[in-house]
């Protein structure tokens, strides 16, 4: 059997947001590799082996998947959202750099709907013009890098999407983020707190920047911040495409 690796996006939570391509790939896989909660989302299938692991061992997980494929397995490496957005696709390619024997493997990335896009759809079209996405976790990069990117994004007047805004182990980062944005933007642009989008726990809250508070976000929340041109119409938030 010729092995392969498919790096698969499971979407933000609801099974209806898993693409047909991703569903077909999961059905064909002999082995599933991923973070515990993501692997648990996939129903058990006779003959299919699940390899679940902790969230902080991405490179080990990627190497394991590549090793399985070299042995002939059909491996689906699963991520929530899209695997190329703060997820496992980059880890797999990084692992390949240290293992030339993997370069001839059949490897494909199967895209998924990101939490950012699902959250934006719930709110309206806050990312309707130029935007950027920033991961606020400082586990893999220093806070100084995050702060610099926040200030430059605000200066460039991007709408922004924030992943991993606030956790119990680092509650201060998002508070500092809001301080930076209030200082740099100085207006009441809308801030959307989209928690657990597409799951039964979904909550959407939109407030002016000056009223945004750190405790409004947790690790299940994607935070969207409008640009200076973002506006509200009824219950919707949107950024016009004609913004300059």
Written description of the protein model:
Helix content is 30%, strand content 25%. By secondary structure, it is of the alpha/beta class. A 5-stranded parallel sheet has the order 3-2-4-1-5, sandwiched between helices. The protein has a 5-stranded mixed sheet with strand order 7-8-11-9-10, sandwiched between helices. Helix 3 crosses helix 4 and helix 6 runs parallel beside helix 7. The longest helix is centred in the last third of the chain and has 14 residues. It is elongated, with a radius of gyration of 19 Å.
Low-confidence region ranges: none
| Strand arrangement in the largest pleated sheet | 3-2-4-1-5
Average pLDDT for all residues: 94
The helix tally amounts to 7
Radius of gyration: 19 Å
**Cα distance spanning the termini:** 55 Å
Number of strands: 13
User: What structural class results from the helix and strand content?
Assistant: alpha/beta
Major sheet description: 5 strands, parallel
Please state roughly what percent of the residues sit in beta strands, choosing from under 5%, 5-15%, 15-25%, 25-35%, 35-45% or over 45%.
25-35%
Series of H and E elements: EHEHEHEHEHEEHEHEEEEE
Q: Give the overall shape.
A: elongated
């Amino acid at each position: 059997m010729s092995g392969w690796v498919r790096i698969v996006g499971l979407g933000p939570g609801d099974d209806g947001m898993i693409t047909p391509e991703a569903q077909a790939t999961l059905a064909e896989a002999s082995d599933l590799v991923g973070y515990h909660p993501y692997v648990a989302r996939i129903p058990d299938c006779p003959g299919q082996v699940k390899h679940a692991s902790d969230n902080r061992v991405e490179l080990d997980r990627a190497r394991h998947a590549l090793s399985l494929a070299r042995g002939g397995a059909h491996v689906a490496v699963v991520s929530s959202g899209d695997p190329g957005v703060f997820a496992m696709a980059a880890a797999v390619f990084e692992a390949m750099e240290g293992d030339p024997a993997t370069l001839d493997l059949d490897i494909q990335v199967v895209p998924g709907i990101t939490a950012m896009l699902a959250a934006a759809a719930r709110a309206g079209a806050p990312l309707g013009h130029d935007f950027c996405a920033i991961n606020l976790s400082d586990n893999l990069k220093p806070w100084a890098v995050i702060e610099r990117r926040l200030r430059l994004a605000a200066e460039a007047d991007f709408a922004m999407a924030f992943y991993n805004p606030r956790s119990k182990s680092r509650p201060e980062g998002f508070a500092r983020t809001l301080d930076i944005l209030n200082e740099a933007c100085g207006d009441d642009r809308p801030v959307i707190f989209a928690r657990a989008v597409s799951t039964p726990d979904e909550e959407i809250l939109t407030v002016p920047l000056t009223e945004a508070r750190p405790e409004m976000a947790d690790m299940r929340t994607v935070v969207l911040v409008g640009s200076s041109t973002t506006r509200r119409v009824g219950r919707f938030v949107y950024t016009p495409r004609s913004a300059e």
